Amino acid sequence: MQKEKQEQSSTAAAEELLKAIGITAPDENVTETVHVPHRSESDHWLTPTILLGVVRILELIIIAAVGFNIWAFYLGATPDSTNNGYYAVIMLTAASAPLVFQSFGLYSIVALRDFIRQSAKLLLAWTAIFSLLTALAFFTKAGAEFSRVWLASWYSIGMFVLLIFRGFISAMVRHWNAEGRLERHAVIIGGGERGSRLINALAATNDTDIRITGVFDDRSDERSPDLVAGYPKLGNIEELVSLARKVRIDLLIVALPITAENRLLEILKKLWILPVDIRLSAHTNKLRFRPRSYSFIGEVPFFDVFDRPLADWDYVMKTIEDRVVAAIALVLLSPLMLITAALIKLDSKGPVFFKQKRWGFNNDLIEVYKFRSLRTDMSDATASKLVTKDDPRVTRVGRFIRKSSIDELPQLFNVLRGELSLVGPRPHAVMAKAADHLYTEVVDGYFARHRVKPGITGWAQINGWRGETDTTEKIQHRVEHDLYYIENWSILFDLYILMMTPFSLLNSENAY
Q: Relative to the CA of 458, which of 28, 42, 71, 255 has its CA 20 to 30 Å away?
């Protein structure tokens, strides 16, 4: 009860903070404007890493397409042309161009944004590529096999098309930058002198992708003033956790010395449950390590404490996996789902489907779909009472579909809607309990399993931890397996879990 009151208090405080976000704090000494956008699905897709990867791929395609089309129009080449030398040269050039562009510093958000300054570098890099081609043809005496008009046309037209493409990308990047979509929204944890020095160091570093939101600190004495290097102190750590559930915060930077071990552990224990990157500032530490021991924002060094799981391309791959496999599964399983729906209607009165609020990604509440397995007049939308063996609330058809997990199949629609994944920690109902205690009261750090989207099946389920959680041990083992999955995710791991799920359903000992 006390924990619920604390959470309500923190949420209320966060709501007050949200009212102030986007406007300049009233204190006339505040020099920075606090702006934090709300979280959206596009935040996962439009990141610097993904954007730069897409630009690399598109430029490779552009270079190859220009080379092939000039060959086709000028020399009349066809797909069955016998001169494979052109194929080899075009593909080798297209594949190596991104590597050369990378060496010229052309793949960064700064380079994409600053079209005028980077155009000269692009021209130099493109010229270097064709100079190498010409030199290679000379030394291998292969120049006579290729048309000089084709090569010159490819060089000039290719340069023109690349400049147009870069100009378009530059305009888009500037637009996204103005909206703050390509920036990482960071929070400084720990005010006072260390926080101030860190903020000033980041401000002195040119061309970073960091936008500081504000400062949070548990201290309320003179060691942590209300204003730190022009940024307002927005609250304490509990309020930060609540705020991070509602708005987009990408990076938490802890501005505490590594010698403050106890305080660091206390803060990290509260923060590691969030799906964000957590870094420990190292720029004022007297003890210095090798450069590879640090990550850098500009020239400012940091220790990596936690990384957000399933970020950038990992998120893209998992999303594609979810949507493609879920769509195929719905088609293949549609006869079984139609038969199940008919049996439910014949067995008892009430709707075929049952919707229940459960915890989703980052503690968002989502409604998951299931085939109804309980009597309509005995339904339990909050799962305040777990289903037990021979539970009178379960219908005859319900008992079978629960044991076989057929009741979970409608959650494929949740996957297509982007609320669930095929594989992940199972979404639990908001009032789910183990031994008459809420899961959050039983497992320390329980919400860390919500750093990724929940799934229809998971590592815990194929290892036998499914069904009733009548003891604290069962939910603890579930959470341990969920956290292991999050830390060790890969596409192959997902595919293994999906393949093993049908076999795990044969063990229905705890499924009622």
A: 42
Query: How many domains does the chain fold into?
Result: 3
d(CA 449, CA 274): 9
Q: For residue 284, which of 301, 268, 305, 306 has the smallest C-alpha distance?
A: 301
- Are 94 and 198 within one domain? no
Nearest to 478 by CA among 501, 502, 460: 460
If asked whether residues 60 and 6 sit together in one domain, one would say no
Q: Measure the CA–CA gap between 499 and 277, rounded to whole angstroms.
A: 32
**Chain segment 233-268, per-residue pLDDT in tens:** 888 888 898 888 888 888 999 988 777 778 888 898
| pLDDT tens by residue, 202-245 | 888 766 778 888 889 888 767 777 788 888 888 888 889 888 88
Residue 196 Cα to chain centre, angstroms: 30
Q: How far apart are alpha carbons 313 and 29 in whole angstroms?
A: 42
**pTM as predicted:** 0.81
Q: Is residue 509 part of a domain?
A: no
Query: Collapsing DSSP states into helix, strand and coil, what is residue 295?
Result: strand
Q: Are residues 175 and 300 in the same domain?
A: no
58 with 31, same domain: the answer is no
Which residue, 142, 161, 179, sits at the end of a domain? 179
Between strands 437-438 and 353-359, the pairing is unpaired
Those residues whose C-beta lies under 8 Å from the C-beta of residue 252, and which sit 6 or more positions away, are 186, 187, 189, 240, 271, 274, 276, 277, 278, 279
Name residues whose C-beta falls within 8 Å of residue 75's C-beta, 6 or more positions apart in sequence.
147, 150
CB atoms within 10 A of CB 355: 13
- Is residue 17 included in any domain, yes or no? yes
The verdict on 360 and 251 lying in the same domain is no
Instruction: State whether the Cα torsion 213-235-255-269 is positive or negative.
Output: negative
